[in-house]
Structures are given as structure tokens and as C-alpha cells.
Design goal:
alpha/beta, Rossmann fold, Arc Repressor Mutant, subunit A, five-stranded parallel sheet, four-stranded parallel sheet, 17 helices, 18 strands
């Protein structure tokens, strides 16, 4: 299998989304990625959301000057929830007397489908443009409702309050930690061990939940270091990315906050930033996550052999000693992503340190040679170690 039609072939991507995770996983898999599904959060059902009910009653009972509709699906969900509580007609009547601002075309369409009419909407979808439009007006003493969708907008609402407005936040869908954190703990371990290449985040609460689970296992700093170095943090937008950027983690973000655009951003970034290409014995060899592409053919490689290959590829053509290679073999616990206890996580970190013996290195090299399927690519240098059979001067390395 080649990589032209499947540009993410050989890469493993963690998916933390609760909503639309199947769509995201499908888009990634169609492009060749191996998906590790680890939901970080769960949605609180609208019918059980007492806070949303209270805010809806407040909107019905007290006049609003402005309503900012940020997402179509969130606005529709709010009206559906109001209908279930017997408040839809009263809410729509209130909104008919409110200045409605739509963040973009989808939000505009949702307003119109409810029989309402927006008063203003920017050309391209933009919260910043809506905020600018509002701040150009005198907001002192006004009531501005902002429809949220799963995450807060502190910069947006804070600017409105600073301008003198009373802000009513409408929390359409709220999140809580997932009931079973085992898959997320497994993903954290795999990120620290380097056996996933990227983690996709589609909401700020998912980022917070992932960091919280890592902290519970004393792995927050190792996870952040992995995200700073060898694991791509792909975030759907700047609000989602904020907690990571504040901690010095670089993120990949699409131009538009859409799942499809997020996948396209990963397609553009992963092969460029996480691939290494070399010429070895006349063959084109590319390292891609958990696989190699050898003369255009994708060959999956297990974690330990891949760790050996990466160490050799960092110094192509040069001998790497067995002692050095002992230090790069991943912990079995962390590479496998086995369910952890907190103490198990700590021991996993300890196992990741240079404790393997030379026999483990020999076994990993043997598996690597079998996985490559061609002899002579990894050479044994007697009493010294191993090397990739390529000219160290002419070797091309990228990424």
C-alpha cells in the first residue's frame, strides 16, 4: 500500500472527542491513520441540565437587547430543549423582540429556520467580528445573551462586561468527565511512550480532562513534554488550544474551526513534520509514526523495533552502540497502553528508562529486520553495535 491516496498511513492519531467522534475517526481512517479512540468527556443531556433550564426561564422573563448565536446546532438544541420544557413559544416570542447576531452562515440559517430573522452577521464566520460589531455600540446597561456550545468564551464575554453589558451565558450542552477514563489513561501512556503521533482535540473541556487524567497519574509534565516534542497536538481552534499554548505546547490548528479542516491540517502537518527520509542501500526509506515506507510500500513496525530504527536514523551511516540502544526501548506497559493504576503509571515511567539489556536490543533488531523485509539495511558492526547501511554524508533526513 502506498501513501499518495492515504497520506496519514503509518501514523496513529488519538481522538478525544465525545460528540461526532465517529465522523472524525472515519475521516482520519479514510486517509490511512490508525485511530485510538479515547473519549475525554461526556455530554450532559439537555433534559437534565438544570442550569440551562434556569437561564432559559431568565431569558423568557427578562428582556434581552442582543443575542449572539454562535453555532447552528447549539441554537437548534436550545430551542428543542425549550420545547421539551414547554417554553419554546415564549422563548421565540422573546427573541422576536431581540437583536439577533449570527456568527456565520450556519448560525444564520438556524435562526431563519426557527422563523426568526438575524439583524447582523459577518461575511466570513467570526466571533471576533461579532464582538467588534457589538463593541462599536454603547453597551452600558444592556443585556447581551451569548449562546455557548460546550465551552466558555471568556475573552468574548469579558470584553462585553468591560463595556458595561450584563452578559447572560447560555450553556447549550455542558461537559463532564467521562465515566470510564481507562481509554484516556491508555492514550496518555501511549503519548508519553511515543507510540501515537498526534492527539486531536475538538473542545477545551477535552484538553482539560486529558491533562487532569494525566495529573492524577503523575504524568502531566511527561505528557506536556511529549506534546512539545514528538506528539502533535491538533486543536480545532484557539479556544480549544488555549490551555496547551499557555503551557508552551505548539498546536496545529485549521483556518476554520471544522472537523474536516482539522483533518486536512493533520494531513498537511504529520507527513511534513513527523517523517524522516533516507536512502539506504539504494532504497528510499521513510519513517512514519508506527510504520516505514520502503520503496513506496507501507510496512508496519512494532514499537520496540521502531524505537531502534529511529535511533539509527538519527545518525544514518554511523554505528550506534548496544548500550545506547538499550536506552531507547520503550516500556512494555506504556507502549502497549495497558490499563493503569496510579502506581502502575509511575512504574511505567521507570521501565521506560535505560533498563533493557543487550539481549532485548538484539531481539528488537531481529524483529526490525523481519519487518523491513530486506536484508542488509541494518548492519551489525561486531563488538560495537548497529548502523543503517547508508552513506552518512549523502543520507537525506527530513523532519
Amino acid at each position: 500500500m502506498g501513501t499518495d491516496s492515504e497520506p496519514l498511513a503509518g501514523f496513529a492519531v488519538g481522538v478525544t472527542a465525545a460528540r461526532r467522534h465517529e465522523e472524525l475517526a472515519s475521516l482520519l481512517e479514510r486517509r490511512g491513520a490508525r485511530v485510538v479512540h479515547a473519549p475525554a468527556i461526556r455530554l450532559i443531556p439537555l433534559a437534565d441540565d438544570a442550569e440551562l433550564l434556569a437561564v432559559t426561564r431568565e431569558c423568557v422573563d427578562r428582556p434581552l437587547d442582543h443575542l449572539v448565536v454562535t453555532t447552528a446546532i447549539g441554537f437548534r438544541a436550545w430551542l428543542e430543549a425549550a420545547d421539551g420544557w414547554g417554553l419554546r413559544d415564549a422563548l421565540v416570542a422573546r427573541l422576536e423582540r431581540t437583536t439577533l447576531l449570527a456568527r456565520g452562515p450556519k448560525a444564520r440559517g438556524a435562526i431563519r429556520s426557527a422563523g426568526l430573522q438575524e439583524h447582523w452577521s459577518p461575511g466570513p464566520e467570526s466571533c471576533a467580528a461579532v464582538l467588534k460589531h457589538l463593541l462599536e455600540q454603547d453597551l452600558v446597561g444592556t443585556r447581551v445573551a451569548v449562546q455557548l456550545y460546550g465551552e466558555e468564551l471568556p475573552e468574548f464575554t469579558g470584553a462585553l462586561r468591560a463595556a458595561g453589558a450584563e452578559v447572560v451565558e447560555i450553556p447549550v450542552y455542558r461537559w463532564s468527565r467521562t465515566d470510564d477514563a481507562t481509554p484516556l489513561r491508555r492514550l496518555v501512556g501511549q503519548a508519553v511512550a511515543g507510540t501515537v503521533d498526534a492527539i486531536a482535540f475538538t473542545s477545551a473541556p477535552a484538553v482539560s480532562a486529558t491533562l487532569a487524567v494525566a495529573a492524577e497519574d503523575d504524568l502531566e509534565e511527561p505528557l506536556l513534554e511529549a506534546l512539545r516534542t514528538h506528539v502533535v497536538a491538533a486543536c480545532v481552534g484557539p479556544v480549544t488550544a488555549r490551555a496547551l499554548t499557555e503551557r508552551g505546547v505548539p498546536t496545529v490548528q485549521p483556518e476554520r474551526a471544522r472537523i474536516g479542516a482539522l483533518v486536512r491540517a493533520l494531513v498537511a502537518d504529520l507527513p511534513r513534520s513527523r517523517a524522516r527520509r533516507l536512502q539506504v542501500r539504494g532504497f528510499a526509506l521513510e519513517l512514519r509514526g508506527h510504520a516505514v515506507v520502503l520503496d513506496g510500500q507501507l510496512r508496519p513496525i512494532a514499537p520496540a523495533p521502531m524505537a531502534i530504527l529511529r535511533a539509527l536514523a538519527r545518525r544514518p551511516g554511523h554505528v550506534v552502540s548496544r548500550a545506547e540502544l538499550c536506552g531507547v526501548l520503550p516500556s512494555r506497559l506504556m507502549a502497549s497502553g495497558a490499563p493503569w493504576t496510579r502506581e502502575g503509571a509511575r512504574s511505567g515511567l521507570r521501565e521506560a528508562r535505560p533498563q533493557a539489556d543487550e539481549h532485548a536490543v538484539e531481539m528488537a533488531v531481529a524483529r526490525l529486520r523481519r519487518g523491513l523485509g530486506r536484508s542488509g539495511i541494518v548492519e551489525t558492526v561486531v563488538k560495537r553495535g548497529y548502523r543503517l547501511a547508508c552513506d552518512p554524508v549523502r543520507a537525506e533526513v527530513r523532519g
